[in-house]
Write a structure and sequence with these properties.
- It is built from twelve helices and 21 strands.
- The chain has 485 residues and is an alpha/beta fold.
- It has three domains: 37 residues; 207 residues, Rossmann fold (3-Layer(aba) Sandwich); 182 residues, Ribosomal Protein S5, domain 2.
- A nine-stranded mixed beta sheet has the order 6-5-7-8-4-9-10-11-12, with helices on both faces.
- Helix 8 crosses helix 9.
- The protein is elongated, with a radius of gyration of 30 Å.
């Protein structure tokens, strides 16, 4: 009987063990997808040959035991000095505006943007300015050779003995350069081109990007060395690589710009040391990249006389007001399907404004071609520019020029009403600085508004009222004009 009992216990033990859930044993090195069996193609990112065997969390290794704190015991927060964490200006005012004053010691900044937007040019200029200020700078490039970077440095005048340059794609070599040179500022261009031999997968993969960024962050924090990482973007404009990369770094900046425009915008999507609603403006040219403290002049035409179909509005890029001129051309169409062409303006927004003009004001636009564009490659994406779009279109349709020195602000509703928009005071202050002395704003914003000195503000309740106000402040010839059906 004892033998039978021991055999039954053995059977139950084997059955219990067989019911134990099996951990996922294979993982994709590109996106981190896991599966219980090997497959040739990842079921998440559809990559071929990227699924490898994975021991799973822990992998049977012993748990981490407690150890003595490496940086000393914990202290009261009031006894910790904050002077060492003060931001140091980079010398580029527009970059400092976005970062919140400059680079904080030990901070890691991720600068992402499309190819050719000017990321490397901007960071090479920042590195040269820091080197001229007596700081030791290490610039590691994995995309170009040192000779190619030297050519760019000659073009933008970014040569200094304190600026050290190296081309490496191996993580161990990059960390060796940091140990050898002990820089005060480190720039890596780019994080997707560096790989570690200790991690499986190609450069730019999920595992490699995580390993490279973790190693650089550890080196930056231990040395109180600010580091700037250049990152690629995907087709939809997001940062390439794992989402953990954006969580690990302290600041994430997006560098934006159109290929056919010299204007570049820098905005922070994450910032542990400053605001995320500031925007920096830069001008990219053959001689380098220059900050634009006053970019509004790029978006306003220099016409000496009033032209039908033009209207000025003020948009907010973060907390920064930018004056933008909208130009419209309305012409008879010989096609049964008239064209609606836009540049710098959302086509769906224009279609809505034209429908409101035709339905609420009786403006005949169904048989007209409408072309609408902004000056200087600016973009009008917020609803505050709706009133300017409507006035520019109706001015071109009626061949009536709006009065010079007039700015229009307001969102147009489907019922034709003019809705309030945020930041009217800041927008009018920017318009007044540029010399505009008359403004049409939503009527609901007039009561609590303190207009700048010398600016005459008129409140409009709907589109028809706005057109009447335009005629009232215009010339005698324009005052008698009305919308023709």
């Amino acid at each position: 009987m004892p033998a039978v009992s021991d055999a039954a216990d053995s059977v139950r033990a084997v059955a219990t063990k067989s019911r134990t859930p099996v951990r996922a044993g294979f993982r994709c090195t590109e996106c981190g997808w896991t599966t219980s069996k090997w497959v040739g193609r990842c079921g998440e990112c559809q990559s071929w040959g990227s699924v490898v065997e994975d021991a799973g969390p822990g992998g049977g290794a012993p748990r981490t035991a407690a150890a003595a704190p490496s940086r000393g015991p914990a202290r009261p927060i009031s006894e910790i000095p904050s002077e060492t964490a003060q931001a140091r200006p980079t010398g580029v005012d527009e970059l400092d505006r976005v970062l919140g004053g400059g680079l904080v010691p030990g901070a890691v900044v991720l600068l992402a943007g499309e190819p050719g937007v000017g990321k490397s040019t901007l960071l090479l200029d920042v590195a040269a300015r820091a080197a001229r200020g007596g700081r030791r700078v290490l610039y590691v490039t994995g995309e170009e050779s040192v000779a190619q970077v030297r050519l760019r440095a000659d073009r933008i005048r970014a040569l200094d003995p304190n600026l050290l340059l190296a081309d490496e794609t191996d993580l161990a070599s990059v960390l060796g350069h940091i140990e050898q040179s002990a820089p005060d500022l480190f720039v890596l261009d780019s994080v997707q081109t560096v790989a570690s031999t200790q991690v499986e997968g190609s450069a730019g993969g999920v595992a490699q990007v995580r390993e490279v960024s973790s190693a650089v962050i550890q080196a930056a924090k231990s040395r109180d060395m600010p580091a700037v990482l250049v990152g690629h973007v995907t087709k939809d404009g997001s940062v390439a690589g794992p989402r953990t990369l954006e969580h690990l770094v302290d600041v994430v900046c997006q560098f934006e710009g159109e290929r056919h425009s010299r204007l570049r915008l820098l905005r922070a999507t994450k910032n542990r040391y400053g605001p995320t609603d500031e925007v920096g403006c830069f001008d990219l040219s053959e001689s380098g990249i220059v900050g634009l403290p006053d970019p509004s002049g790029l978006f306003v035409s220099q016409a000496l006389h009033a032209v039908p179909g033009t209207c000025l509005t003020v948009t907010l890029e973060g907390r920064r007001p930018l004056a933008v001129e909208v130009q419209a051309l309305v012409a008879p169409s010989a096609s049964p399907n008239p064209r609606r062409t836009t540049s710098g303006v959302d086509s769906a927004r224009l279609a809505m404004v034209l429908a409101v003009l035709q339905r609420r004001l009786g403006a005949r636009l169904a048989d007209q071609d409408v072309y609408l564009s902004t000056v200087g490659g600016a973009r009008v994406v917020e609803p505050a520019g709706d009133l300017a779009l409507a006035l520019a279109a109706i001015g071109s349709r009626e061949d009536v020029a709006l009065p010079r020195g007039l700015v229009a602000l307001g969102e147009v509703g489907l019922a034709g009403e003019i809705r309030a928009v945020p930041g009217v005071g800041r927008r009018l202050a920017e318009a007044a600085r540029l010399g505009f002395r008359r403004a049409i704003v939503p009527a609901s914003s007039v009561d609590d508004l303190v207009p700048p000195d010398g600016v005459h503000v008129l409140g409009a309740t709907d589109l028809a009222h706005a057109v009447q106000l335009v005629g009232a402040v215009g010339s005698p010839a324009a005052a008698g004009q009305s919308v023709r059906a």
